[in-house]
Amino acid sequence: MLLLLVYGPLAQWFIAADRVLYDQLASHLPNKPLDSALIVSVDPSRTTATDVSATYGRIIEVLSLAGVRRIVMTQPPEIPDDEDLPGWAAAMNSSVPVYTPTRHRLANLATRDGFINVTTDADGILRRAALWQLNNGVMSPSLPLAVAFDSEDAATHHRMSSAEDAIFLSNYAELPRIEVDDLLNPNADKSPLRGATVFLDSSPALVGAVALLPSGQFVTQSEIAATLLADIEQDRTIIAPAWVAAMEWLAPALLAIVAVLFMPDRSRKDIIVLAGVAIVMLLLLETLLLYVLHVRMDLGRPIMIFAGVAILSIWLVGDNRKEVTDAFKKGNDFLAAGRLEPAFAEFRLCPPTETVATVMYKLSLAFEEQAKPERAEAVLEWMKRTQGTTTSSSPGKQDAVTGPQRLGRYVIEKRIGRGAMGAVYLAKDPRINRPVALKVIPIEKEFEDEELREARLRFYREAESAGRLAHPNIITVFDAGEDKGLAYIAMEYVPGIPLKKFTDPQKLLAPKRALELCASTAEALDYAHNQGVIHRDIKPANLMYNPKEGSLKITDFGVARMTDNNSTKTGIVLGTPMYMSPEQLNAEDLTGHSDLFSLGVTLYELLAGEVPFQATNIAVLMTKITTDDPAPISKRRAGIPPSVDTVLAKALAKRPEDRFSCGAEMAIALRNCARYS
Fold it and tell me: How many CB atoms sit inside 10 A of residue 487's CB?
């Protein structure tokens, strides 16, 4: 469609894009005037035609005596057909070569003659000058070319013998002008005229301008001739060879094909980057051709084509993304409601990403629970067909397995972490060869009798709640079970680094990056809170960050609540005290506002390298959290705007109702701060 527009009804509009681009580049093209050249203009308005003719004759005589190199008469005086030319014959036959326009009466007396043709484009700008013109069946050169033919080194100019019939103008390097009175003054110093090229006309600067150059300069006929002659003799004429004309027709089509092949099915960010790189490369190519090779290739149309395809692709991606988002949301809703077949149908409408594969894995487990192994196999086959059986990147050097070799159907490979509530293992589901992270809790060692039964119920209830969550920034819970006296939770395995690593004052993240990561966390918390799930233990150690991809995942959703019991033997507590909200420390009923308080503490630590509330014992810490206000973060670290102080003050408010109303509101505030960091 765009190609039809480029070469169809909108062709002139696209040609205008080429011209604008050329003008911008040509305006700054390095240029220099002829060596030792000047312009003399006779004002015809102050004298009669006879006087003008006589003035021209005296000027030629003076210039000849002064020893100028050559005289170029771009505007000779009008001479009636019935007037004799004996005086002119004597003047023109001097030792100094004189050049005049073709078809003028003086052309037969001149050393050489050439045509002057000032033909502007439709927008009134002179960009192109013809070198040859058919005149009475004979190809005649332009006046600048005729002058250049008499140059001693004309043969050395490789473009003089080319088949080019036109050259292009860029900008005018101004030549000095000399007043007629000063020139004809017998007492004036004529030494600067020796060896000079003199352009003789009747057009004063600006007032006598006949054209506008791409640089925006108004020029006279003599200035045009001087510019073209300088380009020819200095061998830097701007030309458009035959292959350039062919490429100008082919480039839009080729780039349209490339754009159609590579842009669809990409993200908006990739499309913008690809289009930006292509446009910059085209601009560089046109600039290099013009500045280095002095070749004009109009790439405005290819640039417009690429930009047009990019805009169209972004628009289509926007529509596709909405459809994919809607399908993913519907699939999650169906999965949560236990309607597995509609969920499978919706998920298959989504592109095969890691997130979709994660929820598909949950779907296969749900089919198994409903005693539908053939449907579970169908889901697994879809995953193999669309994503293959490759596993995620293996973790770096980790601890060897010192616990069980197998829990449930999961084969444990190695331990990748340890916490107060147990260990975390990298395991594999042999049915699909998919890696999972197993968080293992020694539930039978921690609880007894009634407490054990209550803890078991709470464990599965919270695992079910966490399993309902399907968000790009939340690690997905696949399964939960118990084996060998150990409770385990099978979760999505995501390689990354806990943000705890970046709370070291020597390894702090850039403020903008920390704000953006916490904004993503706030959005994920908002989603979880809307599903009725509270994390209860937001802290840097539970936020996994992948610097390579720039992604973040919240871990341990529901785990803190699973082991919440006042009689635990090993001191397992609900949350981490220094990140707890006042209401959490006071054992009050919690809402999502508690997680937002913990996120505020986390952000403070990521920016400052230490938590806002510190103490040597739990009692003093609780007092500080419930009564003290932390020092403004902008005074703790340079480069943090005061707006971050306002956001943290609201997030760390003592009363839940004084904090942000929801995670989405906090995310907006954090992103606004990131824009100015």
Answer: 25
Q: By the 8 A CB rule, do 557 and 466 touch?
A: yes
**Burial class, 477, CB count within 10 angstroms (exposed 0-12 / middle 13-18 / buried 19+):** buried
Q: What is the pLDDT of residues 225-269, one digit of tens each?
A: 999 999 888 888 888 888 887 887 787 777 777 777 777 667 777
Structure tokens at 632: 């403004």
pLDDT at 458 over 70: yes
Instruction: Give me the amino acid identity at 188.
Output: A
- Residue 125 has φ and ψ, to the nearest 5°, of -105, 135
Bridge-based pairing state of the strands 37-41 and 177-178: parallel
406-407/218-219 β-pairing: unpaired
Q: Is 534 helix (H, G, I), strand (E, B) or coil?
A: coil
- Domains assigned to the chain: 30-233 (no CATH), 320-387 (no CATH), 406-492 (3.30.200.20), 497-674 (1.10.510.10)
Residue 481's contacts (CB-CB under 8 Å, 6 or more residues apart) are 407, 408, 487, 488, 490
Q: Express each pLDDT in 571-589 by its tens digit.
A: 334 447 899 999 998 888 8
Q: What is the pLDDT of residue 666?
A: 96
Residues 297-319: tens digit of each pLDDT: 888 777 877 787 788 777 776 65
